[in-house]
Amino acid sequence: MTGGALAGVRVVDVSRVLAGPYCAQLLGDHGADVVKVEPVTGDLTRSWGPSRPDGVSAYYAGLNRNKRHLAADLGTSEGRELMLELLADADVLVENFKPGAMTRWGLAPDMLAERLPRLVHCRISAFDPDGPMAGLPGYDAVIQAYTGIMDLNGEPGGPPLRIPMPVVDLTTGLLALSGVLLALHEREESGKGQRVDISLVDGAMSLLHPAAANYFMTGAPPHRLGSAHPNIAPCETFPSPAGEVYVAAGSDRQFAELVSFLGAPELADDPQFRRNADRLAHRHELNAVLARLIAALDPDVDLARTLIAEGVPATLVRSLPQVLDAEDVAARGMVTELDGLRMLGVPVRLSRTPGSIRTPPRPLGADQVAGG
């Protein structure tokens, strides 16, 4: 196996919490040499949730593998000199400090760009760093509320709900990764680095499909639909003898295959249900019929495998332990173990230069401490 697609790329990660560390971890998964520089007090996530005796929490562990671990007080001369030393031969800097912090430490972005013209500087912020909300802190759940995601999530008539995974931070990390890779690719032609700017608000806004597209076209504000889909029917959860089952018959063909499987093929020709637009207009009538048919299914039938084999996207709603112990997940290596620590695997698979998990997350300052 080679060193990965990004072997030879050097990354300095001085970001904290989630989006930045996730971006840097993904770079490390594919072979980049990533140095994580934490405050001497440690990344805030080291104290979030269950932890090992060495100070590695479960939350921290999920975002900081495949990195070297340094600690530095960037407000000291020792910390500044360490940063300049690391950046001298770095390709990428990932940071998420408030505007002005880098300048106070003698590491102003313009100075770095002049001194290190090939550096790709990835700056992650909560809001537009040059806008009216510049410098204000933001966390995933707050941004979910601020950008309307939380208002869209929940049961009809119920209160808005936070999506339990930090989707804003994770999406922002993925967008930051794509920006870094774009800038590295362009540097091959120009020989010059550039700044990559991404905010949590931008990341959240990119998730507003199809709600935003529907609103732009109709002017009608969306309403909470629970597990249903605003543009497709049927596309929601129904109770079955084996547990809750999610059905997503997104096309007329899939709907015909679904009702045929359920023993009611005539529903595909019913004028109320023949086309997706018809099914949306008669969603409540359709759901009542499907609920009755699905409730009568044989509880011993493997609904996920059977329905998907019939061409209908559907599955029993599985619990997290069921997913993490599933045969297909294990076969893909999406749950793996290193030094006794279970973790999620590398989701992007390359045929010649695959990513890998080489080093586990480590204690604070395991490789070096400066200025603390």
From TrEMBL:
<keyword id="KW-0808">Transferase</keyword>
<protein>
    <submittedName>
        <fullName>Carnitine dehydratase</fullName>
    </submittedName>
</protein>
<feature type="region of interest" description="Disordered">
    <location>
        <begin position="352"/>
        <end position="372"/>
    </location>
</feature>
<dbReference type="Pfam" id="PF02515">
    <property type="entry name" value="CoA_transf_3"/>
</dbReference>
<dbReference type="InterPro" id="IPR044855">
    <property type="entry name" value="CoA-Trfase_III_dom3_sf"/>
</dbReference>
<dbReference type="GO" id="GO:0008410">
    <property type="term" value="F:CoA-transferase activity"/>
</dbReference>
<dbReference type="InterPro" id="IPR023606">
    <property type="entry name" value="CoA-Trfase_III_dom_1_sf"/>
</dbReference>
<dbReference type="InterPro" id="IPR003673">
    <property type="entry name" value="CoA-Trfase_fam_III"/>
</dbReference>
<dbReference type="InterPro" id="IPR050483">
    <property type="entry name" value="CoA-transferase_III_domain"/>
</dbReference>
